[in-house]
Design brief:
Elements: H1 3-18, H2 26-43
Length: 76
């Protein structure tokens, strides 16, 4: 097959794939998503585990100033 015919065939196949829209079975999709949701909810709790860092919150707060001192920076 020549290069022109090969390119035309590739273009035609690409166009067919781009505009191909199969029939979607929404009820099957809903069943699948519903099964995944019920399985996930039974496996994991509603609230994710979050560590409590409140004891470390103010431990190092006095070491760093939140204010930026303009005089201490060197510009240029």
């Amino acid at each position: 097959m020549g290069r022109g015919r090969q390119k035309a065939k590739a273009t035609r196949q690409a166009r067919d794939m781009k505009y191909f829209s199969p029939a979607t079975d929404y009820s099957a999709l809903q069943r699948e998503l519903g099964a995944a949701k019920s399985h996930a909810s039974s496996q994991y709790s509603e609230d994710p585990y979050e560590a409590d860092y409140s004891e470390y919150e103010d431990k190092y707060a006095d070491q760093y100033d939140d204010d930026d001192d303009e005089d201490s920076r060197r510009i240029g």
